[in-house]
Amino acid sequence: MLKKDLRKKYKELRQQLSEEQTEDQSLAIANRLLQLDVWDNTYFHLFLTIEEQKEVDTEFILQILAGKDKEIVVAKSNFDTLEMTHYLLTDNTKFQKNEYNIYEPVDGIEVPTSKIDVVFVPLLAYDTKGNRVGYGKGFYDNFLSKCKEDVIKVGLSFFEPEESIEDVSTTDIRLDYCVTPMTLYSFR
Question: What are the structural domains, with CATH classification, of the chain?
Answer without folding.
Answer: 3-186 (3.40.50.10420)
